[in-house]
Amino acid sequence: ASATVAIPKEHHRFVIGKNGEKLQDLELKTATKIQIPRPDDPSNQIKITGTKEGIEKARHEILLISAEQDKRAVERLDVEKVYHPFIAGPYNKLVSELMQETGTRINIPPPSVNKTEIVFTGEKEQLAQAVARVKKIYEEKKKKTTTIAVEVKKSQHKYVIGPKGNSLQEILEKTGVSVEIPPTDSSSETVILRGEPEKLGQALTEVYAKANSFTVSSVSAPSWLHRFIIGKKGQNLAKITQQMPKVHIEFTEGEDKITLEGPTEDVNVAQEQIEVMVKDLINRMDYAEINVDHKFHRHLIGKNGANINRIKDLYKVSVRIPPDNEKSNLIRIEGDPQGVQQAKKELLELASRMVSGM
Predict the structure, then answer these.
(1) CA distances for 127 relative to 3, 70, 71, 246, angstroms
(2) Distance (Å, whole) CA 142 – CA 135
């Protein structure tokens, strides 16, 4: 991912630091690549490339460096991390309004940065106003809010968070409740809801709805059937994915199952359709494996595949002959049960003729 951050051109050199040391240090610390326009380039945009968290951290640090250089007043306010969402407001609307109204720059560390300080930069009088308003929100929320803790399966946390944290913002906007999710590297399943007591019930309903709005399920299907389920050029699968584009269907090689992930209702429908397909294929299809010394494989295949293609067409089967580099003797035949038996018989006869002809 990449993002840009604009700071006054004259502050760029402070981000670079002496001999570029500050910049190197910042890139290392945040695991990002930071591109600063050349001195002769009038642009004030700094480009950051990296992971979402890395970009957030780097952006935060760059804005802090710029704030320090700002000749205007700078003030830091220590606010417990759990109250930051109330100050930022849903989708950062509250802090944006506050910045516009007071002409003060307010820097709230992103959720992934473990800092509690909110940094204000601006004209002294306006800055004092902004600080006072943030303090007021903080005091009010500390007094009025309470918490409840609920258990939500770890695998469902990402659905409560939503893409780019959107679902959390949506709950905050609808109910005024902040939902705290344990970090991904923690095994905890406890989700904390923080808000005004009368709003917690509604927020809890939202959390459960989001947690269950997506689901992961699997269908048992022998791995050799997978390609028949997918169909020629993916045709069979396309019928399902066109109806339900939000369902992600995954086939893992060598595993006798198919995994589905997506909106719960869609997954249920797709699962039913795949189960019907699997049942039908199991009734209609069979496979056989035969051992033929790999040195005879190319004779079985015939010139330009003439021999093997004739068998495939005649018996309506697919035949997998391992490539030379595998040095494997195992040939696999799949398809219509009767065709499989006939193809097996013919291939074994051909092979034994070759052996006796040696």
Answers:
(1) 28, 13, 13, 47
(2) 10
DSSP at 32? -
User: How far is the CA of 335 from the CAs of 162, 290, 300, 313, in angstroms?
Assistant: 43, 15, 19, 11
Mean pLDDT for all residues in the chain: 92
Q: How far apart are CA 290 and CA 311, in angstroms?
A: 15
Element (H, E) at 77: strand 73-78
User: If we measure between CA atoms, which residue out of 175, 168, 85, 91 comes closest to residue 134?
Assistant: 85
pLDDT digits (tens, 9 = 90+) for 73-92: 889 999 999 999 999 999 99
With contact defined as beta carbons under 8 Å apart, do 276 and 239 qualify?
no
Read off φ and ψ for residue 213, nearest 5 degrees. -75, -25
> d(Cα 199, Cα 16) in Å, to the nearest integer?
47
Task: Report phi then psi at 8, rounded to 5.
Answer: -50, 140
pLDDT digits (tens, 9 = 90+) for 163-189: 889 999 999 999 999 999 999 889 999
DSSP 8-state assignment for residue 336: S
Domains of the chain: residue spans and CATH:
1-69 (3.30.1370.10), 72-144 (3.30.1370.10), 147-212 (3.30.1370.10), 221-282 (3.30.1370.10), 287-357 (3.30.1370.10)
Residue 60: in which H helix or E strand, if any?
helix 52-69
The answer to whether 8 and 45 are in contact (CB under 8 A) is: no
